[in-house]
């Protein structure tokens, strides 16, 4: 396995975040609800705000030799009845870096971070039925499918189901 460093991204990482996120959206458009065109329209300030210390989510980056090659975002529900839940979004590894352990390093770091937050009892995510490798990665990291939403997403003439997954903390 390649030496991977996972850390929280900051506003200074916004240019690298733009490149990595756009690459993910272009490589696997069916895996995400946002498309590359919509993402490209975001301003530099909007991207920096996503990575600010007071942002709604925490975005982790996986780096190899200083290059940002993977992403994962955690968002804790804020409504008091749901504040025990953390949602995992936007997990990606650039195509050229797949198979080197970056995805697993990101997911495990995200799980560890969420578990360190007081009151968190579970992590939740949804993975498209077209993303079998991603589902297997989440299962290796302890997530389990608890339900499938049929007809969840329609894109480019295709209908996708989502596998809803959970991990108890």
TrEMBL record:
InterPro entries (alphabetical): Acyl_CoA_acyltransferase, Bact_Acetyltransf, GNAT_dom
Keyword Endoplasmic reticulum: no
One Pfam family here: Acetyltransf_1
Residue ranges annotated for the N-acetyltransferase domain, each copy included: 4-169
Keywords in alphabetical order: Acyltransferase, Transferase
Record's keyword annotation contains Aminoacyl-tRNA synthetase: no
PANTHER family, sorted: AMINOALKYLPHOSPHONATE N-ACETYLTRANSFERASE-RELATED-RELATED
Protein name: N-acetyltransferase
Originating organism: Deinococcus radiotolerans
